[in-house]
UniProtKB/TrEMBL annotation:
<dbReference type="GO" id="GO:0046872">
    <property type="term" value="F:metal ion binding"/>
</dbReference>
<keyword id="KW-0378">Hydrolase</keyword>
<keyword id="KW-0479">Metal-binding</keyword>
<dbReference type="GO" id="GO:0008235">
    <property type="term" value="F:metalloexopeptidase activity"/>
</dbReference>
<dbReference type="InterPro" id="IPR045175">
    <property type="entry name" value="M28_fam"/>
</dbReference>
<dbReference type="GO" id="GO:0004177">
    <property type="term" value="F:aminopeptidase activity"/>
</dbReference>
<feature type="domain" description="Peptidase M28">
    <location>
        <begin position="304"/>
        <end position="509"/>
    </location>
</feature>
<dbReference type="InterPro" id="IPR007484">
    <property type="entry name" value="Peptidase_M28"/>
</dbReference>
<dbReference type="GO" id="GO:0006508">
    <property type="term" value="P:proteolysis"/>
</dbReference>
<keyword id="KW-0031">Aminopeptidase</keyword>
<protein>
    <submittedName>
        <fullName>Peptidase M28</fullName>
    </submittedName>
</protein>
<keyword id="KW-0645">Protease</keyword>
<dbReference type="Pfam" id="PF04389">
    <property type="entry name" value="Peptidase_M28"/>
</dbReference>
<dbReference type="InterPro" id="IPR046450">
    <property type="entry name" value="PA_dom_sf"/>
</dbReference>
<keyword id="KW-0862">Zinc</keyword>
<feature type="signal peptide">
    <location>
        <begin position="1"/>
        <end position="19"/>
    </location>
</feature>
<keyword id="KW-0732">Signal</keyword>
Length: 553
């Protein structure tokens, strides 16, 4: 008989804590169970939850289900006013079909086809975006980094203009002899390389729009991922002084090449210039951007879901385990007619991991420190739920000892290694190495540092507030699997990336959660060490987050 959602809920029962002694490193009394991870992902990635979009009926079902899980595990509520949730006020926007969308160059009008040439979104709560013959300025990588002696803007006036950016950092394609060579960590992306930074910088400088030229290698994902939001946007509700640009989005590589050529410039040549300190912003003289698009918007309240196990000796000190519950909701039909983007691996497996961690910790003696288990909203829309929490913490951040975040784990089986994302940040990396050694595994540096994964998950707002963090994510490269080695790991990763944010990110009977369970166990071992000790992780000397000051409550 097939398991129903109700039946799977019943599996959350736990053994009384008093019956289980605290484990020691490498001797987990209540191991993470791969079958439980699989069962949870199967449920939360089912069509019942409608793709878990913030503000949707799918959210209502998801939040209610998560609360029931937390309750059945015996957690205590850790949300607003003694409840299970933290309200996160958001604005939800959607662009309609454009009445006008074109760039006029020296050679005449060049229509832009949505989702082929250009992808656009707006986070402004207005009824229409209308831009008429707005000048375009190419700003290279759009980096202002005085601590690195780098400024792509050179005082250019962007007010009322469209800023056009390259994705990633100035040294992403740099070679020896370029000023940018090894200036921004080589292939390892810094925050300057993220699309969020570029849109933020455009807004700070008064631009009305921002367009990033897409490059699959530089972005870390293909064009299908870029257009996956289908014109939807989410943002925290902002004041007039903190407004985003009116339009933000991406140009396809082919469209950008064509537009620059028709404007009298060679894009490849400009890319090379952008790797030098001497680069000057380039006004695409004679080329202007025009767009008229309807916007629908509504203010919504979404929810983070939080539970806790209170500490016995130092209850005011917290260790946090988190994952995002949201996915991309309902979109256009795929080739098989499926419309629900269910987010099984991204991040149903993270939700499952947090629930497993809660189950295992609850089955033990009461920890010395308080453990917080968080399910965040709107990560896919700009890391909004965890960012809101970081600005409105329910537990003092200066006493938050560590944040462990799970976002995408591989489902191809057990592995010999684990990939460290964002090496050189804090001493949790040493804890990871110790835990991996106990499990007969080795820690390796991420194999695809250009993807900038350290800046793409819910731990980031905590790092920016000075809380030591560790991210476990299976997109950092091919794992060396115990069956099939690196080749098998690469096969899984390349296959998964084709389904990233798509309808095919679904649970299947062929998924092997044993490797995911091993990764979650490493988090458990690190978390357990901190839960029953007075030790605190520390930022490493060269980390950009070392000097951050956490919020004191």
């Amino acid at each position: 008989m097939k398991k129903t959602i109700i039946g799977l809920l019943a599996m959350a029962a736990v053994v009384p804590a008093a019956a289980v002694p605290p484990p020691v490193l490498g001797q987990v009394s209540w191991p993470i169970e791969a079958s439980r991870l699989s069962d949870t992902v199967k449920v939360i990635a089912s069509d019942y939850f409608e793709g878990r979009a913030p503000g949707s009926q799918g959210e209502k079902k998801t939040v209610a289900w998560l609360i029931k899980q937390y309750q059945s595990l015996g957690l205590e509520p850790a949300g607003d006013k003694g409840g299970w949730t933290q309200a996160v006020p958001l604005v939800h926007t959607r662009l309609g079909k454009a009445d006008r969308l074109e760039i006029t160059t020296q050679q005449g009008k060049r229509p832009l086809q949505s989702d082929k040439d250009i992808y656009l979104a707006s986070l402004r709560p207005v009824n229409r975006i209308a831009l008429n013959k707005v000048p375009l300025v190419f700003v290279g990588y759009g980096v202002s980094a005085p601590e690195r002696g780098w400024d792509d803007f050179k005082g250019v006036d962007l007010k009322g203009k469209i800023a056009v950016f390259l994705i990633n950092d100035p040294d992403f394609s740099a070679v020896s002899g370029d000023d940018a060579f090894e200036k921004f960590g080589g292939r390892s992306m810094t925050y300057y390389g993220r699309w969020t930074y570029k849109f933020e910088e455009a807004a700070r400088r008064g631009a009305v729009g921002a367009l990033i030229i897409h490059d699959s290698q530089g972005a870390g994902y293909g064009w299908d991922t870029v257009i996956a939001p289908a014109g939807e946007g989410y943002d925290i509700i902002r004041g007039d002084k903190d407004k985003p640009v009116a339009l933000q989005g991406w140009l396809s590589q082919a469209a950008a090449q064509d537009i620059f050529a028709k404007s009298g410039f060679d894009l490849d040549s400009l890319k090379k210039q952008a790797r030098q300190k001497s680069f000057q912003p380039v006004s695409l003289k004679g080329s202007v951007f025009s767009a008229s698009l309807p916007v629908s918007y509504q203010n919504i309240t979404s929810y983070n879901v939080l539970g806790q196990i209170k500490g016995a000796k130092r209850p005011d000190e917290t260790i946090m385990f988190g994952a995002h519950w949201d996915a991309y909701g309902i979109g256009a039909p795929d080739s098989q007619g499926r419309t629900i983007r269910s987010g099984a691996i991204d991040d149903g497996v993270g939700v499952a991991a947090v629930l497993e961690l809660a189950r295992v910790f609850k089955a033990e003696h009461q920890p010395d420190r308080t453990l917080v288990f968080a399910s965040w909203t709107a990560e896919e829309r700009g890391i909004l739920g965890s960012s809101y929490y970081a600005e409105h913490p329910l537990f003092p951040l200066d006493k938050t000892v560590a944040n462990f975040t799970v976002d995408v784990l591989q489902t191809a089986g057990r592995s010999k290694d684990v990939l460290l994302i964002g090496a050189g940040q804090n001493s949790l990396e040493n804890d990871l190495a110790a835990a991996a050694k106990e499990e007969n595994r080795v820690v390796k540096a991420e194999l695809l540092p250009e993807r900038g994964l350290f800046f793409r998950a819910d731990h980031l707002p905590f790092a920016r507030k000075g809380v030591p963090v560790l991210l476990m994510m299976g997109m950092a490269g091919a794992y060396d699997l115990r069956e099939g080695g690196m080749a098998a790991g690469e096969k899984w990763l390349s296959g998964y990336m084709k389904c990233y944010h798509q309808t095919c990110d679904r649970w299947t009977e062929n998924d092997d959660f044993e490797g995911a369970a091993e990764d979650v166990k490493l988090i458990y071992l690190m978390g357990h060490h901190l839960a029953f000790s007075d030790q605190k992780p520390e930022w490493l000397p060269n980390s950009e987050f070392k000097t951050k000051t956490v919020t004191k409550e």
